[in-house]
Each structure stands twice: as structure tokens, then as C-alpha cells.
Model the fold of this input.
Amino acid sequence: MTTHFTNHGLSAAASREPNPQDAAHALALALCHEHAGFVLFFCSAEYPLSQLADALCQAFGELPVSGCTTAGELTPDGYDRGSIVAICFDRRLFAVETALIDDLEHFDLPTAQPLVDGLLERCRRQAVAPVNEHSFALTLLDGLSSREEQVLATLDAALGRIPSFGGSAGDDNHLTHTHVYANGRFHTRAAVVVMMNTRLPFEVFSTHHLEPLEHKLVVTAADRERRRVLELNGVPAAELYAALVGCSVEALAPPIFAQHPLAVHLGGQHYIRSIQRVNDDGSLSFYCAVENGIVLTAMQPTPLLTDLAHMLQRVEARLGEPAAIIGCDCFLRRMALESLGQLDQASTLLRQARVVGFNTYGEQHHGMHVNQTFTGVAFGALPTP
Amino acid sequence: MALFQLPDSQQGDDIAALREENHRLRKVCTALMERVESGGSPNGAPYAAFERSVLLAEQVRERTDALHRTLDELSQVNARLLAANAEAHAANVSKTKFLAAVSHDLLQPLNAARLFASALETHALPESSQALVGHIGRSLKDVEGLLGTLVDISRLDAGVLHADKAPFAVSTLLDALAEEYRQVAGVRGLTLHYVPSRVWVESDLALLARVVRNFLSNAVRYTEHGHLLLGCRRRADGLEIMVGDTGPGIPEPQRKAIFLEFRRASQPQANHSRGLGLGLAIVDRISTMLDHPVTLASRLGHGSLFSILVPYAASCGALEGASSPVPSAQWGDDPLQGCVVWVVDDDPAITEGMQALLGSWGCRVRAAATVSALEAASDGERPAVLLVDYHLGEHRENGIDLAARLRRRYPGLATVVITANHEASLKRATREAGMHCLLKPLKPLRLKMLLGTLLEGR
Done:
């Protein structure tokens, strides 16, 4: 089963074929054309990945392909699971260059700058559009590497004004292995940087539907290497958080984390720090970096659908009807929608806006690793000369 | 629930609870103080990277952006420079090609005119007319010389001329030149001393001849009294061929400039003003191409000495007599008398001119554009010599192939391929096919000498 759309040099398709060969073949059939320049895909971690890698190589041949595993897919039909969705870029409108960062531990500025300069130079050579003002970077990171913050900050410094966004790969909430795909195979503890230079107008956006409450929690003990908060306000973290949301420690689970997030307040903005799980020692693991002495603000949700609809309206007001949107949607948002029974309504909004993407273990926006957001890039129609 | 564990109303009720609350507050205070005192988060920590991305990255971003813009501008400037350079190069190449093409096209009719003028000289004419014909011939020869120079320099610049080095006895070159310039110098009231040498050298004979000829022409042109010298000196790394004169000499500041195009030293005599000032520029290019260094020694008021250093031949005498384009054989009128010469050329003006010239030497000439036309006109006569144009039109076989075909029918047919193409590869091809090669514009004397040699050996 394959669904797809084609619009302004962008075509998207999805397949629910469980067999990797069949799925890859179906996608190639729907997407490949003589001007195809690059394919980006997001696939369920349920696929046998090495077989899928071989099948993709076979189906797409010389065409460069990048992607990652997900915690759910955003297909041309809306939310899905267990599928693979891909988007193909026409090289007459898009110059796309990719780089794999396979050593996240030692990714410093002297490494990042030549990498970014090389990507830009290779884009420039294809002469699709001026590189300044017409380029953005998409990052796909191993969502369990715990290196997102440093890699992103370094990359962002190298990118300068070039906007960037992205998502951390997921694995259908198993929290064991997440993968990014480049150069014909899947990688762990790695990141893929996709530089896109395009003639289409575009906008990188990020939104969330959460607002602050009065409660403040101070991290009084933390294990920064493992992204664990041991104590909040001098009390074991899980105990205090459970008291805050009004349930027992035993009842703490992802739907509650999605419903009652915490955030840091920096530079006038709230940035969600999502909880991953409760540990046996009463500590809380996070999807992002934590530190001793940071002040967390309790947050509460506002209607997600309303926020999503407003965000899409704002994008449409600026760009016109979107040609397509690549979206990185936190899997906790999806969980919140599922528990509210609003998944289908959200799917309708996303389908109408031609969103293709995946549910992440964290989003990236301008070098910041954030949680519980919907972050992405919207493409407008090709301006008529 | 607020930051504090106990609601305000319970305050003071329970000492133990208060103690507990106090303990927690201390922890909160400690954590906050540590963080404040560390100036945020410790460097290198993941949260610090996040925080910096939020708060500080703006400055970094602006600076990186400024750098990117500068790089962008630089690469644009670079691209423009490259484009301009490519354009200039293309313009230069097209100029060179144009010059080569024009010169080449001029050579064809000039060739015909020279043939007609030579033929005319053999006619019985009144004395006044003979002088006029002589002038025409000399003028044509000058034009030919100038054109030849232009062709040479354009070909050297276009890089299409390649050296065809072979061993030869330096005497084959210098004897002929000495003979030629002894007469030229005599006309100007100068004497030429020639010191012959029997040494073998390895070079491109035609290109080297060009260099020595230019030295000699300059010496004649600039020397008003005294004598010229042509000779050789054995050096460790080669034979130095020298041309000296007793002319005005060249002032030190000019010694480099005279090797540039269109430069001449002090104005030559009115009589010898023909020339483009390209002579030494050609010498310079050929010297570079052959890798034969040229030196100049000069004393003002005493004279100049130009020389070129040519490497010795590896094995002397290996090819003696095999490919000597300046045959030293004695020749007379007899061998040409009544011999059958076939001429194949697709240009009717040339075939006519050849017919007139060869006819005036007593040859029986059959000239046509094709072999079949030739054979039809020849009545089954066996040709002694074949003169064939190399380039016989767009879609036809070339002169070498045509000659090879004819030689299968007439084994041992002496063949001269005539071409305006100065490429060494063509010369080599004719040599390898056992044929001779003459360049356009055809020099009647050269042709006559060659025919004499070819027919005498029969």
C-alpha cells in the first residue's frame, strides 16, 4: 500500500509493506524520475534494518539517500506506525549535499567548519540558487547518543546564519537502538547533516502547545553524563514529580510525562526538558541534558490541535499554501494526542498541509536540542518569475 | 505544590518537619549557589552547550556569518577572474587561429603567382620586361618571406608546431646557408667567413635552419661594412653555432627586448626595411621549444655575436643521406630534360602554374586533379616523378595515400608530397613512406634541385 503526492519538485510516498524489498521497490516506483536528486526517508525501527539498507541501495541505485528510524511516521495520510515514508527532491529545484558525522565524541569546531564549508561549496557548484538566504541544514541524530547538545551547538556555530532543524531518531519507544542512515547503511552513535539549497521559498519553524505554571523545581543532584536528575528541591526526583502531578511514583509513565512536562526558562523562552523514564533509584532520566542547579518550571498543556492549526495558518500566511512540510514531531505529542483521542483530527491537519516526517526522541532547532515540539521546514510554491 | 515542601499554615507545628524543610532548602541553596558561582554550567557540559546555543550563540552566529559572506564574495571574485582569464585566453587562441588561417589561405594564390613568375623568367623577353619580371619575382619572394614569418609565429604561439628531432651532419645545414648568404652579403658589399664543421648534431633541421637564417638575415641587415662570420665551436654540452658581425652592436638595455615581438634595434637601412621585427621573437620561441639555449654577446661599435647551442647526435652517421632535405648533389639540366612528371593537385591554378614551370625546365608534364584524369591524359606513359598535393579536398584521400596507391602500380615511383601543413608529424609520415616533402609556398629552385637529385639517381 502506497500513498503519495507530488508538488513543486517535491514528491512524497509511504509504504506499509512489511517486506523491505517490497517497501523499497514501492517507494522507488512512486518517487524516481529523471530529475530525482535526493531521497530522505523515515522508517519504523521494526524493519530488519540491514535488509532494508540493501533493499534501498538496490531500489534507488546511484541516487543519494539519507534517513533515520522513528517512533512513528508522518505520511501523506497523516500519523502512521510500522511504515516507511520518503520524500524525493528534484535536482532542478534543490541542491542537496549530505555528510555523516560518525564520531560524535570528538566533533569540535575545527571538524565542523570544514564539513559545513564543504557542504556549502558542493551545493554552490550545482548552482540551483544563491547559497546565502536559500539554504538550510537538516540534522538527523542518534536519539540515544546523549551527545545532541554538544554536536548541535558546534554545528550551529559553524552554520552561522544558515537555519537548521532536525530530529533525533526513534525506535518505537523501546529506547534501545536508534539509527541514522547514510552512505548505504544504518549507523548508531552518528549524525547525518543534510544541506539543502533550494529555489523554493521556505521557513524553518518550531512550535509547542505548553504554558508555564507557577511551580519551580530546582535540580539539587544530577548525573549529567546519564542525563539523570537524582533530586529535585532536595527530595528524590521521582517522588517530588509524582507529588507535583498528583499520582504515585509507580503510576509514572510516558503519557503522564507528556501531560505534565518540565521546562527551563532562558532568554524569555520556555524550553521543554522531557522526562524519559523513572529509574529504580527514584531518579528521572531525561531526553536532554540536565545539570545541577538548573531551575525547572512545571508546564501545562493547552489544546494541541489549536496550537498546531495556528502554526500551520501562520506558515501559510507567509508562504502561501505549502508545497510540502518536513516535520519532526516529538513522540510525546503523539502520545498526548492518542490519549485525548485526537490523533485522526491531527492527521487531517497534517495531511492537508502536506506534512511528511516522523515522531522523534527530541527535536533540533537552531542548534538547540528541544523536546515536545513540532519542528520542521515548510516549502512554499516556486515563485513565478 | 510550590517550591517548599510544607504549606505555610503548618509552619511552627512540627519541629521535625521544619528541620526537614530546612535541610531541603539548604540543598536548593547550595545547588543554586554552585551553579551561580560556576558562571552557569561547567564548560564542556552538555547543558552548557544547550544554554550557550540559546543565549550566546547569536554572537558566534553573526561572526561566522560575516566570514561566510566574505568567503562567498571572494569565491565570486575568483570565479569572475577565472572567467575573464578564460575569455582572454580564448580571444588569444582565436586571434592566433585567425592569423594562421589567413596566412595559410594567402599562401595558396601566392604559391601560384610564384610559379607563374618563375615560368615567365624563362621566356625570351625584352630587357626592360625582364627587369620588371625580376622585380615581381623578388617582391613575391619578400611577401612570401613575411607570410612565412607570420605563419611561423602564429603556429609557435598556437602550440601546433612540434619539433621533429633527428641526427644530421651540421654541414648539410650550414654549407647551404653559407652559400646562400655569401651571395646576399656580397650584394651588400660584405664578406662572409664560413668555417665548416663535420660534427653531427641532433635537432629539428627545419627549425634550426630558421634560427640560423634569422641570425644571418639580421647580421646582413644591420651591418654596413666589414664582414660576417658563420661557424661552430665545440662545447662540452653541444655544438655552438655562431653568427657574428661587425655591425653597430646592441646596447645592454636592449638585449632582452629585441627577443620580443615587433622590436628592432636601431633602424635598419632604407633598403632593408622589409620585416616585421619578428625574427628574434621566433628565434626565442624555437630555442625554448628545442631546448637549445641562445646567447648574445655584443660590443657597441664593434659588433654582435649570436649563437645557439645544439646537442651532439647520439650516434653519428646512423642516418647519413637518408633524409637530407638540402641535397648537396650536383645537378644539371639533363636529367629533367624530357622526363615525365605527373602532378596531382585539386587547385587548377596550381596545376596550370606547375605545368608552365616544369614545362620551362623541359619536363613532360601531365597535371590533373585526379589519378583517373591523369591516366586518361597520359596514354599509358610511365611517370618518372609524382608531385602530389597533400590536401586534396574535404572528402578525398590525402596525397600520401594516393601516392602509395600509385606506387603499387608503378614501383619505385619517386614522389614529392607538397603541403602547406607545417606539422612535423606530416614530414615524418612522408619520410616513413619513403617519399619527399616540400612545403608551400613552393620554392622553384628547391623543387628543381630535388627533381635533379631524384632523377639523377635513376
